[in-house]
Amino acid sequence: MGAFHHMIICVTDIERSRAAYAWLMPEVGFPKRMDYPPSTGWEGDVHRFWIRPQDPRFVSDPPFSKDRVGLCEICFQAPSRAAVDALARVLPDHGFPILHPPKEYPYGPGYYAVFFSDPDGIKLEYAFIGDAP
To answer: Quick check: 19 pLDDT over 80?
Structure first.
């Protein structure tokens, strides 16, 4: 056990985020889309990832900071270093700015990742944790 079943994040502009995540989620292993308006989710083998509109009572500027109480970042597991590199090459073309380029990071042996953000600035990561080359 010990795995998450699903994760839900709130976004400021559901249509903008739905379009961005519609591209990203199949790329990181969540191919099946489910719509339960106003929310949208994607399903992988055993995990689900959802977006939904934020409650307007809680609007903040900026909308996200990894240093506030709550979510810091979301990391998706990559199958290889090549997959990390391939995703990093196309992220900016799909509205996901790269925060830290693909390389080995000191979080463990063979930890190879790219860090990027979604349309609301939520910090995302795609990482391969394997043997060092």
So the answer is: yes
What's the pLDDT tens digit per position in 29-39? Answer: 999 999 999 99
% of the chain exceeding 90 in pLDDT: 77
Task: Measure the N-to-C terminal CA separation of the chain; round to a whole number of Å.
Answer: 30
Residues in Cβ contact with 92 at an 8 Å cutoff, skipping those fewer than 6 apart: 98
Domain presence at residue 11: yes
Specify whether the CB–CB gap between 123 and 74 falls below 8 A. Answer: yes
Query: What is this structure's pTM?
Result: 0.90
Residue 90 belongs to what domain range?
6-129
Phi, psi of 8 (to 5 degrees): -130, 130
Closest by CA to 88, choosing from 107, 103, 73, is 103
Phi, then psi, of 19 in degrees rounded to 5: -65, -45
Residues 6 or more apart in contact with residue 60 via CB below 8 angstroms:
none
**Peptide bond before residue 26 is cis, with ω within 30 degrees of 0:** no
Q: What is the count of structural domains for the chain?
A: 1
